[in-house]
Specification:
The chain has 155 residues and is of the alpha+beta class. The chain has helices spanning 3-19, 25-39, 76-84, 137-153, and strands at residues 45-53, 56-63, 70-72, 88-90, 108-115, 121-129. The radius of gyration is 14 Å and the shape is globular. The structure holds methionine sulfoxide.
Amino acid sequence: MTDRRQRYNETIGHIKSLIAGETDLIAVMATVTCELHHAFDYFDWTGFYRVVEEGLLKIGPYQGTHGCLRIPFERGVCGAAARTRTTQLVDDVSRFEGHIACSSSTRSEIVVPVMTPAGALIAVLDVDSNQPAAFNECDQANLEAICKLVGETGG
Ligand code: SME
């Protein structure tokens, strides 16, 4: 098993035990960002943006330098994930039209939508890396599995 996959197995196990029975979404988001951010050295910003009204994301729990507070669905990688309800895996943010650079050091990014079991979009999980093409299909599959856990908390 690859190191990355093994690391995700361990981290998901920690997350599941830490959030077991928790119904407070912010507490779950804070725990997930903490565990993920400290588990992977190529995660340089890790956080959630919450859907606070139709078409608008607002920052939630995060780890890393300050992030922008509001993102309309029309903008950024986060907006694209919210609009399309699909994961955005960006190898080079400088080539993503409309990328919002909260830090000039970001080189690649992955953003995963968070939906409830009923299919309501409640947030996106945003992870930035200072390394180019830092994320792959292992990250995508595991972060989507983690976002499914978060979505189950929300509804
Ligand atoms: N890069 C994101 C904005 C959030 S900051 O990276 C934390 C985007 O383009 O939506």
